[in-house]
Design goal:
Layout: H1 4-8, H2 33-40, H3 43-64, H4 66-90, H5 97-137, H6 143-147, H7 152-192, H8 196-232, H9 251-286, H10 299-340, H11 346-368, H12 385-411, H13 420-446, H14 451-460, H15 464-477, H16 480-498, H17 512-523, H18 527-549, H19 554-601, H20 613-654, H21 667-681, H22 683-707, H23 712-750, H24 760-797
Helix pairs in contact: 3-4, 3-8, 4-8, 4-11, 5-7, 5-9, 5-10, 5-21, 7-8, 7-9, 7-10, 7-18, 8-10, 8-11, 8-18, 9-10, 9-20, 9-21, 9-22, 9-24, 10-11, 10-17, 10-18, 10-19, 10-21, 10-24, 11-12, 11-18, 12-13, 13-16, 13-17, 13-19, 14-15, 14-23, 14-24, 15-23, 15-24, 16-17, 17-19, 18-19, ...
C-alpha cells in the first residue's frame, strides 16, 4: 500500500512492462441527425436561426407573462454556462494513447446502444401517440373546454403534440447525460495521475453540464408549451379558455417524458447490470482477476453500461421527475386559484417554473464552488471527496432556502390572504429539509464509514449466505426512516397550506394540496446539484475502469477507487432523493387526477372508498403490479447475465492465452450480446406498466356501466394508483438501499478490511454485490419512474375511465 500523501498527489510512475490487451473497436462516431445538420450549417446562418428562435420565444413569453420572460432568461443563461463547462472539461488532456483507445471503445459501445435503444423507443412512442389521438378524438370534453370552444380534434392534437415533445425532450436529456460521461471519463482518469482534487473537479463539472441542460430543458420545454398554448388559444380573452384550466393541456408532456424515462431506465439498467454481474461472477469469483481487468471479455460492456444505465437513463429519469412535478403543481395551483377566485392566478400557476429557474442559479453556484485545489484548512493527508461534495450541497441548500422564500413572496402574495405566502414558504422549507434528511439517511445506510455497511461486510466473513441475509435485513430496515420522513412532510405541508388563510366561496380552506405541491417543489429545488452528484458516480466508475485496463500505477488506481466508492454513495443518496420526490410528486399527480375526473364527470370526486369490493381489488392489482414488474426486471438482468457468463467462460476456455496476455479477448461479442438482450428484455415489463392501468380502467368502466356505478372505472384506477404508489415507494427504498449497501460492503473489504481482495469475505461480498446489482440499478430506479408514469398515464387517460 502506498502512503496517504501519495493518494492525494499521485506520482507519475512508469507503466508496468507486462503486455497489455487493449480493445480495438473503433467505428464511426454517432451523433443524432439534428446535431449533424447543425454542424454543417454556416456559422452566420446558425446565428441568424438562433436569434430568430430566441426572438420568437421571448415574443411569445412577453405576450404571456413577465414571469415567463424571467424563466426563459434564466434557462438560456444556464445553457450558456453549460457550454462553458463543456469547453472547460473537453480542454483537459485525455492522457496516454492506451487510455484514449479504451475511452473510444466505451464511447462507440454507448453511442451504438443509445442509437438502437432510442430508435426502438421512438417507434413505440409514435404508436402510442396514434392510440392517444384515436382515444381523444372520441372522448368527452370538460364543460370548461366546451365553453372555450376547444373541440375534440383540437384537444387530441394538443395532447399528442405535448406527448411527442415530452418524449423528444426526455430522449435528448438522456443523450446529453451519456454524451458528456463518455468524454469526461478519460479526462478524469488522466487527471487522477496528477491530483485527486483535479479529478474530482472534472467529474463534478462534467456532471454539472448534464444537470443544467436536463433541468433547463424540463423548465423551458414546459414554459414554451404553456406560453404557446396561451397565445394560440387566446387564453383569458372573452369566450376563450380560462388560464386556470390551461395546465390540464400539459399532461401529455409529462406522460411522454415518463414513457421514455421508463424504457430508458429499463433498457439501460438491464444492459449495465447484465454486463456487470456476468463480468464479476466469472472474472472476480471464478478467475480471481481484479475488477475492470483488461483480460475480462465483458469489461468493455460493463463500462459501456455505466454510461447508458447510470447517465443516460438517470438524465431522462430526473427530467421526467421535474416535468411531472411542475405540471401537477401547476394544475393544483390553477385549481386552488379558481376555487378561491384569486384575481391574478398566474403567480400560483407559474410558481413551479420560477422555483426551478432559481434551482439552475443556485446549483450553478454550488457546482462552481468546487475548486481544483485543496482547501488549506483541511489538515488530513487525504481529503474526503464526499466532504467536498457535501460542502457544495450545503451551500446550495442555504441558497435554496433564501430564493424559495423570495419566490413565495413574489408570486404567492395575495390580498385575500396576506400571510399565505409565508405559510407556503414554510411548506417549501419542509420540502428542503425532507430532501436533506433523505440524502443523509441514504448516506447512512450505504456509506461504509457508517455502521450498517460495516456490519454487512462483517457478515461476509462467515459466508455467502450470511452476507445475503444481512443485506436483505438492512434493506428492509432502511424503509422505516424515509417513510416516517415522508409522512411527516406530507402532513406538515398539508396543514401549513390549509392554515394559509385561502378559502373558497363557502369558507372552506383550500390550500392543503397546494401546500404539499410547494413542499415537493422545495424538495426538488436543488435537483440540478443532486443530479450533478449522481452523474459524478458513473463518470468516476468509468475512470477507474480506464485506469485499471490501461494498467496505470497503483497510486492512480487508489485515487479512482476513492472517487468510485464516493460515487457509489452519491448514486445511492440521489436514488433515495428521487424516491422521496417521487412519493410527493405521485401524491400531487393523484390529487390532480381526482380533480380532472371531477372536471370531466362534473361530479365531486374527493374520496376513494376501499370498502367497495371492486375498489379494493383495484388496490390489490396495483400492489401486484409493483411486485410483478420488479420480478420481470430482475429476471431480465438474470437472463442477460447468464448469456454473458456463458460467453466469458467460453472465451477463457477457447483462448487460454487471455490470462497470460498472449491473446486478446473479444470485447465486441459481449457488447453485442448485452445490447441485444437489453433491447429484447425491456419490452415485457414496460408493456405491463403501460397496459395495466388502461385495461383495468376500461374493464371496470364496463362493469360499472352494467351495475349502475358510473365512476367505478375511475375509482378502481385511483385505488390501483394509490396502492401502487405506496408499495412502489417501499419496494424502491428496499431495492436501492440493499443494492447500494452490498456494493459498498465489497468496496470496504477491498480497502484491506477483513482480509482484503481475494479473501473469502471478499468472495462473499462479491456475491452480495451481484445480487444487489439488479436491485439498485434496474428494478429500484425503474419502480420510482413506474409510479410516476402510472400517475401521468391516468391523467392523460382519465376520460376513458368515465
Amino acid at each position: 500500500m502506498m502512503m496517504d500523501e501519495d493518494i492525494e498527489q499521485a506520482s507519475l510512475m512508469s507503466f508496468n512492462d507486462r503486455p497489455r490487451a487493449f480493445p480495438s473497436m473503433r467505428s464511426k462516431t454517432y451523433s443524432p441527425l439534428i446535431f449533424r445538420i447543425l454542424r454543417k450549417l454556416n456559422v452566420r446562418v446558425l446565428s441568424i436561426i438562433l436569434l430568430f428562435c430566441f426572438g420568437a420565444i421571448f415574443y411569445v413569453g412577453a405576450s404571456t407573462s413577465p414571469i415567463i420572460v424571467f424563466v426563459f432568461t434564466v434557462c438560456i443563461i444556464s445553457f450558456l454556462l453549460s457550454i462553458y463547462l463543456t469547453k472547460w472539461v473537453l480542454a483537459k488532456d485525455e492522457g496516454p494513447p492506451e487510455m484514449v483507445e479504451i475511452s473510444d471503445a466505451i464511447r462507440d459501445g454507448a453511442e451504438g446502444f443509445f442509437r438502437t435503444q432510442y430508435s426502438t423507443i421512438s417507434k413505440m412512442a409514435i404508436l402510442l401517440a396514434f392510440v392517444i389521438l384515436c382515444i381523444y378524438l372520441f372522448r368527452n370534453l370538460t364543460p370548461q373546454q366546451e365553453a372555450a370552444g376547444l373541440g375534440r380534434a383540437m384537444s387530441a392534437y394538443i395532447t399528442v403534440a405535448a406527448f411527442l415533445l415530452g418524449a423528444l425532450c426526455s430522449g435528448v436529456a438522456g443523450y446529453v447525460g451519456m454524451w458528456v460521461s463518455v468524454r469526461a471519463n478519460v479526462r478524469v482518469s488522466s487527471a487522477a495521475r496528477r491530483s485527486a482534487r483535479e479529478a474530482l473537479q472534472i467529474a463534478v463539472r462534467a456532471g454539472g453540464f448534464s444537470a443544467l441542460v436536463v433541468v433547463g430543458m424540463a423548465v423551458i420545454g414546459i414554459a414554451i408549451l404553456y406560453s404557446t398554448f396561451y397565445v394560440w388559444l387566446g387564453v383569458d380573452s372573452p369566450g376563450s379558455m380560462n388560464v386556470t384550466d390551461l395546465p390540464l393541456l400539459l399532461v401529455g408532456y409529462g406522460f411522454g417524458a415518463s414513457f421514455v424515462a421508463l424504457f430508458a431506465q429499463l433498457g439501460g439498467g438491464i444492459y449495465t447490470k447484465g454486463a456487470d454481474v456476468g463480468a464479476d461472477l466469472v472474472g472476480k469469483v471464478e478467475q480471481g482477476i481484479p475488477e475492470d481487468d483488461p483480460r475480462n471479455p465483458a469489461v468493455i460492456a460493463d463500462l459501456v453500461g455505466d454510461n447508458v444505465g447510470d447517465c443516460a437513463a438517470r438524465g431522462a429519469d430526473l427530467f421526467e421527475s421535474i416535468a411531472a412535478e411542475i405540471i401537477s403543481a401547476m394544475i393544483l395551483g390553477g385549481t386552488m386559484a379558481k376555487k378561491c377566485k384569486i384575481e391574478d392566478p398566474s403567480g400560483f400557476i407559474l410558481f413551479p417554473l420560477v422555483v426551478h429557474s432559481f434551482d439552475l442559479i443556485i446549483s450553478s453556484i454550488g457546482i462552481l464552488s468546487i475548486k481544483g485545489t485543496r482547501d488549506a484548512s483541511v489538515k488530513s493527508p487525504v481529503e474526503d471527496p464526499m466532504a467536498v461534495l457535501q460542502k457544495g450541497y450545503s451551500l446550495t441548500i442555504i441558497l435554496a432556502v433564501l430564493t424559495f422564500g423570495a419566490s413565495t413572496r413574489w408570486l404567492l402574495y395575495t390580498e385575500q390572504a396576506p400571510s399565505a405566502w409565508f405559510n407556503f414558504a414554510l411548506c417549501g422549507l419542509v420540502g428542503i429539509i425532507t430532501a436533506y434528511i433523505f440524502v443523509w439517511i441514504s448516506k447512512y445506510y450505504t456509506d461504509y464509514k457508517h455502521e450498517p455497511v460495516r456490519t454487512l461486510a462483517l457478515a461476509s466473513s462467515t459466508g455467502h449466505g450470511t452476507n445475503i441475509i444481512a443485506g436483505v435485513s438492512l434493506g428492509l430496515e432502511s424503509t422505516a426512516l424515509p417513510v416516517l420522513t415522508i409522512s411527516v412532510a406530507i402532513i406538515s405541508a398539508y396543514w401549513l397550506g390549509n392554515t394559509s388563510g385561502l378559502v373558497d366561496e363557502n369558507g372552506i380552506p383550500t390550500g392543503g394540496l397546494f401546500g404539499t405541491a410547494v413542499a415537493t417543489m422545495g424538495m426538488l429545488s436543488t435537483a440540478a446539484y443532486v443530479l450533478t452528484m449522481d452523474m459524478f458516480g458513473p463518470i468516476a466508475d468509468n475512470a477507474g475502469g480506464i485506469v485499471e485496463m490501461s494498467q496505470q500505477p497503483e497510486s492512480v488506481r487508489e485515487i479512482t477507487d476513492l472517487l468510485d466508492a464516493v460515487g457509489n454513495t452519491t448514486k445511492a443518496t440521489t436514488k433515495g432523493f428521487a424516491i422521496g420526490s417521487a412519493a410527493l410528486a405521485s401524491f400531487l399527480l393523484f390529487s390532480a387526477y381526482m380533480d380532472e375526473v371531477s372536471a370531466f364527470a362534473n361530479v365531486s370526486f374527493k374520496e376513494v372508498d376501499i370498502a367497495i369490493p371492486e375498489v379494493f381489488v383495484g388496490g390489490l392489482l396495483g400492489s401486484m403490479l409493483i411486485f410483478l414488474f420488479s420480478a420481470w426486471a430482475c429476471a431480465a438482468v438474470g437472463r442477460t447475465a447468464q448469456e454473458v457468463v456463458n460467453e466469458v467462460r467460453r472465451q477463457f476456455i477457447e483462448r487460454p492465452g487471455i490470462m497470460t496476455y498472449k491473446e486478446k479477448p473479444d470485447y465486441s461479442r459481449c457488447v453485442a450480446i448485452v445490447a441485444s438482450a437489453a433491447l429484447r428484455e425491456m419490452i415485457k415489463p414496460g408493456a405491463l406498466a403501460i397496459a395495466s392501468p388502461i385495461i383495468v380502467g376500461l374493464v371496470f368502466r364496463i362493469l360499472g356501466y352494467y351495475t349502475g356505478q358510473p365512476l367505478l372505472g375511475a375509482k378502481v384506477v385511483a385505488s390501483m394508483l394509490m396502492f401502487a404508489t405506496v408499495c412502489g415507494i417501499l419496494m424502491a427504498l428496499f431495492l436501492n438501499t440493499a443494492g447500494g449497501a452490498w456494493d459498498n460492503a465489497k468496496k470496504y473489504i477491498e480497502t484491506g478490511a477483513l482480509g482484503g481482495k481475494g479473501s473469502e469475505a471478499h468472495k462473499a461480498a462479491v456475491t452480495g454485490d451481484t445480487v444487489g446489482d439488479p436491485f439498485k440499478d434496474t428494478a429500484g430506479p425503474s419502480i420510482h419512474v413506474l409510479i410516476k408514469m402510472l400517475a401521468t398515464i391516468t391523467l392523460v387517460m382519465a376520460p376513458v375511465f368515465l
